[in-house]
Amino acid sequence: MSASLAAVSTKALLDELKRRLLCDEKEEKRTIFIGPPGAGKGTQAPMVKEEYCLCHLATGDMLRAAVAAGTEMGRKAKSIMDAGKLVGDDVVVGIISEAIQAPECKKGFILDGFPRTVPQAEKLDELLASKGAKIDKVVNLEIDDDLLVKRITGRWIHPASGRSYNVFFNPPKVTGKDDETGEPLIQRGDDTADKLRERLRVFHAQTQPVIDHYAKLGKVASIDASQEMAKVSEAIRRNL
Question: Which CATH number goes with the domain that contains 138?
Fold first, then answer.
């Protein structure tokens, strides 16, 4: 037994064994969570991934992880960013291709933040088809733009886990602290009303066609994201 494994408690090992046995019984699900900034993707995805044994693939996190790990696509992305350029769709799709090979993605994934455009959706579809797979469901979180302003300006995030809180709707138990670790929460620099309006404009222009793309394939489940968090979770479960 390795030193690192010896340090793990028997209870933790048994819990992990139980989790793996339960996950073996789950059906594979490859999903996309789509919604404007503040719709609740970052809140719902961590809960759903645990219940269905999926991995949560947030584009920004994947990109940073690939660069840090020095993967083939991560090195390509780093050279592009070092040159002051935007990482292209082919590289992002390559990073997704690397990520979905991870053991934690065995039962499927939740894609969060990609695809944002129809060309990206088509590249993703081609990637999965090459692996004999496809997107099973697109969870479309719908919410009024005006409500999002309050959601966004009140949002605080635990960087390490991605857990999201809101001082108006879902406050942490202790102000400014993560419920589970007690570590400080942060507020994103672009979480302002003016910047949100611009992000919403871009979202509606670019991403609505993505929803239409998958709707034609009968894969979209539109959910009212203005409901209480638990009701949104239940609606997602029904549609998955």
Answer: 3.40.50.300
